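This is your field. Pick holes in the following sequence-structure pair:
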Amino acid sequence: MAKLTIKEIQKLAKKIIAAEPGGIRYSVLVARISGQHPETPKNTVHGSVWDLDKTFDGEVVKPSRGLFKLAEKNSTTARKSVSSVPLEPSIRETDFYQSFADWLRNDLDEATVAIPLGGAGLRGKWGTPDVIGMFKPIPSNRVKFDPEIISAEIKTNPNESITAFGQAAAYRLFSHKVYLVMPGTLTEEDSSRIEALALLFGIGFVIFDANPDDPKYRVRVRAQRFSPDMFYVNEFADRLHDHNRSVFNTLFQ
């Protein structure tokens, strides 16, 4: 097959973008074009598609860094967000609490102990973390250190990303590290925006598969460590102590 011209590459790129209502990342777009037309130099592909939002002004947009998407006014398909696809009714957030607690402790190795919490048991409009963990010294540590509180907010509905981020940000008041855990069915646009916000606020961002038996948690952004407000640390500790003394003792003693 003959090498594609710049115009042909751009036309193909636009067609590929139109077929992806949630948008497509620049690197994926280049790889797909190169895979379909290996005879075309990859540098030519790069040079042809890097500014598609300018080439097709008003037709192709770049809603976030490295993401191309068809402008909604040009496609009824583009108006249907991938994030609006519902999960199976049987899938609940609580189905992932224990597995994420285990992953936080065993795989990410950021907690000495991690326990599912969730619900509204602690009362208060600032909510309750779905998973609460503690990173604290163990007897074998030669150098002791102050314990760190790790909180996590888990959502199975991709349409609740803004609410979820707000809840995760609130946990910063009493937590040294916070993770926001969202399903992989997020659109690329939503995922990119959450990732950018996570970097700005130091909140960890993890995505997972909506399969309780094999969620495959993946880190998009590692949580940064911050010093929480000790007033709210003690306020949280009091609420937890009143709600479940056994969990409090496991975490704080």
In short: The first strand starts at residue 24 and ends at 25. The beta strands are 24-25, 60-64, 67-70, 113-116, 131-135, 148-154, 177-183, 204-208, 218-221. The domain at 6-80 is CATH 1.10.10 (Arc Repressor Mutant, subunit A). The chain has nine helices and nine strands.
